[in-house]
Every structure is written in C-alpha cells, then in structure tokens.
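Tokenised fold entry reproduced for absentees:

. . .
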Amino acid sequence: MVRYSIVTTANNQTNQVRFAQEYKGLYPYLMAAFVGLLLISNIGAVKLIEFGPIITDGGVFLFPLVYIVGDVLSEVYGFKAARKAIYTGFAMAVLASFTFYLVQVSPAASDWGNQSAFESVLGFVPQIVLASISGFLVGQLLNSWVLVKIKERTKEKKLWLRLIGSTAVGELADTLVFCTIAFYGVITGWNFVNYVIVGYLYKTFVEVLLLPVTYNVIKIIKKKEASYSL
C-alpha cells in the first residue's frame, strides 16, 4: 500500500507543472550571473572576429551562457521570474551604454592620450547599442516564453525538447535583430548572410553541446530549491 502511494506521488509530480519561488534560494545569484554575463558579452561584441571564412564577434565566447542561465531561470522559476531577470539585464545594459557615453564625451585629462582608443572600443555607437539591447530583449523573452509553453505540455518530461526548442527560437530572433540593426549595409552580400548564419549556428551549437551541463545545473538547483516540490 505504501509502495503504491509512493509511485502515485511520483507520477503526480511528473505530471505537474512546477516552479520554485524566485524570492528565495538561489534565484538572486542566478540573476546576478545572468546580468554579468550579458554585460561582459556586450563589451566583447564590439570586436568583429574572423577565423578564415568565418566572421563573428567577440560575444560568441560568453553570450551562449546568457541563454543557458536564462533557460535555467525559466525552467526552475517560470516565465515571470525569468522576465524579471531579463528586464534587469536590459536596464543594466542601457545604463552601461549611457555610462560609457558620458565617459566618452567627458574632457580627457591633458596627459591621457587614449581618447581615440577608448572611443574605438567602448565608444557610444547608437546603432550597435540599439541592436544589442533589442536583440537581447526580443530573443530572451521568446526563449523564456517558448520554454515555459513547452513545459506546460511536457511537464517534467522531455527537458531536452524545451531547452533545444526555446534556444532555436530565441537565438534566431536575437541573431536576426542584432545583425540586421548593427551590421546591415556595413557587412554586405554573402558576408552578411554568412555572419548571420554562422552566429546563429555557433551559439545554438554551443548550447546543444552544453546540454549535459545545463541538465545537471537544473537538476541540482531543483533539488536545492525546497519550494520547487511544493
């Protein structure tokens, strides 16, 4: 009788859509990591990188991790909590851009000869800033929304499906918006198409490659969040 009860409870938990409470546990640390990775990636993205026929930007090294943390937030805490982190990241990205602009236009000290170098790396370029924050906002919101919608159908099963499905949609939207606003007309013809395709495939591939890591992180956090099982 007890055995039947345990099995029934396990089955009920599998067939439920569960989320942890975001104001407890590890949520603040995950949000901090999410925002930090976003800001670092945005700074790195100002440099175009060319590996033979492949053209991409410096954001490729860390930006996929932004989506991975976003997936963890959506899977464990739900769309509302993930959206809060996304809006926070968006606000911090805008603040960082505005701060760099203020530093750029402020008078340089007479013995500081790096003004042009600063402007070339961290200078305020409205087109790049708009592309970055727009791509991030659209991509992340779609990523989180798709993941939660798939979870409503699959419950606790098929985690791989919602991780890959949400990534495919979110990264595509992010890449298209960013590349179009930032570099359409600057990178032309096949080079532009190549830039979009390579950027999208690379970021998606990295997330698929890191699925075992994402799986384990989600598993650990779900176990540590007492409110997830309620």
